[in-house]
Amino acid sequence: MQKITVTASGKYDVIIGRGLLADCGKYVREVSSAVKLAVITDDRVDGFHGEKVVKALESEGFEVCKFVFPHGEQSKTPETLLKIWNFLCENNITRSDCLVALGGGVTGDMTGFAAASYLRGMDFVQFPTTLLAQVDSSVGGKTGVDLPGGKNLVGAFKQPKLVLCDIDALDTLPEEFFIDGMGEVVKHGMIKSAKLFEKLEKYDLKSLRADKEVLEDVVAQNISIKRDVVQADEFDRGERMKLNFGHTLGHSIEQYYNYTGITHGQAVAAGMRMITQVAESHGIAEAGTLERLKNCLDLYRLNVPIEPTMGQLGAACLNDKKRFGDDINIVVCCDIGASMIKKMHVQAFLALLSEQD
Ligand code: GLY
User: Fold this and answer.
1) Chain-centre distance of CA 154, in angstroms?
2) Would you state the torsion angle of the CA atoms of residues 247, 248, 250, 253, taken in this order, to the nearest 10 degrees?
3) What is the DSSP letter of 357?
4) Is 0.70 surpassed by the pTM of this model?
5) Which atom of ligand 1 is nearest to the CA of 184?
6) Dihedral sign (CA 21, 25, 27, 33)
7) For ligand 1, is residue 273 a contact (CB within 6 Å)?
8) Chain Cα centroid distance, residue 343
């Protein structure tokens, strides 16, 4: 078991280990004097872990109620949030009580936003059950819901009181979701840690998943990277933007495919490949960086062929919601484990991409 402490606008521990969900009441008791806990989860995760978690929380004397919504990104809406607010109201949840996010990124983001907004703010804890949520979204306090016009358009920064990453919860995760999480894992290695990247090069999807000790260590290394980035720039004005490596083009790819037939991880992987191709062809990235990235992505089945040209994707980036006026912040890796943010005019970015086609 490993413990990583995050010091942001709130200080909290991220605990990484095995069998943590069955023991979660004990950990929540250490950080909360709530009378009631409201567990928020989706129907799929509820089937695997709901009963065990409620039992463990009740065994520590908490009164527990549970809100279950249909799994999937399509639930991450203001409509579901309204249902959660009403549920909290009907169950007389007070400001000194606590919400429990049990599930993946959709659950964590939505529960966090409910905690940021209900009664003008209350505590919440995160029990992430997907690899993506464990290595990325459960740490750092980004919460929110989607709108028809785009993902995560409404939200707040709200740090949890505790994050429990139970490696055993990944046993029931479908392979496609595990691969998705690996996209963010490779990204963390690329932007911040040659050591992590070298470790990933020694395994592949099957062998990493099979070795729980190594997997726990990989999750912990990722959380430690995320912790450092969040501590340096909690509110996403500088250093934290590096976590967008591959995401600007990745989002355009997801949009091109209408969010079907390609996963977020595969789209981000393609985005990382493309931007590294640009960087290497302009001498910004060390020769050989793209080759190592591609090989690593292959090990985790993240490489898929992409139909749109870079020029087409660049044109779609002109509508990127993370633009600052006519400028866009692009993250490039100059070497494995070393990244920088380059602010450029959107038209210059488009020209750079178009010349690769
Ligand atoms: N997932 C990107 C961030 O936390 O900033």
Assistant:
1) 16
2) 160
3) -
4) yes
5) 1
6) positive
7) no
8) 24
Helix ranges (DSSP H) in 127-174? 131-132
Spatial distance between the Cα atoms of 300 and 265, rounded to a whole number of angstroms: 10
Tokens 């413990």 sit at which residue? 3
Asked if residues 357 and 310 have their Cβ atoms less than 8 Å apart, the reply is yes
Separation between Cα atoms, residue 130 and residue 146, nearest integer Å: 19
Q: What's the CA gap between 223 and 54, in Å, rounded?
A: 26
b/e map 283-292, b = 16+ CB within 10 Å: ebbeeebbeb
Ranges of residues in the chain whose predicted pLDDT is under 50: none
Beta bridge partners of residue 123, listed in sequence order: 98
142 pocket-lining for ligand 1 (C-beta < 6 Å): yes
Q: What angle do CA 279, 283, 286 make, to 5 degrees?
A: 80
Q: Return all residues near 291 (Cβ < 8 A) that are at least 6 apart.
A: none
Paired tokens of 222: 């990722």
In sequence order, the 6+-apart residues with CB closer than 8 A to the CB of 76 are 106, 109, 110, 145, 146, 151
Name the 3-class secondary structure at 259.
coil
**Is the CB–ligand 1 distance for residue 242 below 6 Å?**
no
| Dist. CA 52–CA 233, nearest whole Å | 36
**123-128 and 327-335 as β-strands: parallel, antiparallel, unpaired?**
unpaired
Whether residue 187 has its Cβ less than 6 Å from ligand 1:
no
Question: Distance from the CA of 236 to the center of ligand 1, in angstroms?
Answer: 8
Token pair 């020209």 in the structure block, residue: 351
pLDDT at residue 125, rounded to an integer: 98
Q: Which two tokens stand for residue 106?
A: 């959709």
Q: CA–CA separation, 302 vs 126, rounded Å?
A: 27
pLDDT for position 321:
67
Cβ-based neighbours of 169, under 8 Å, separated by 6 or more = 21, 48, 49, 127, 128, 129
Nearest to 16 by CA among 1, 28, 31, 26: 1
Residue nearest to atom 2 of ligand 1 (CA): 243
Amino acid (one-letter) located at 26: K
The neighbour count for residue 355, using CB atoms within 10 Å, is 12
Q: What DSSP letter does each residue of 208-247 carry, written as one string?
A: HHH-HHHHHHHHHHHHHHHHHHHHH-TTSSSGGGGGGTTH
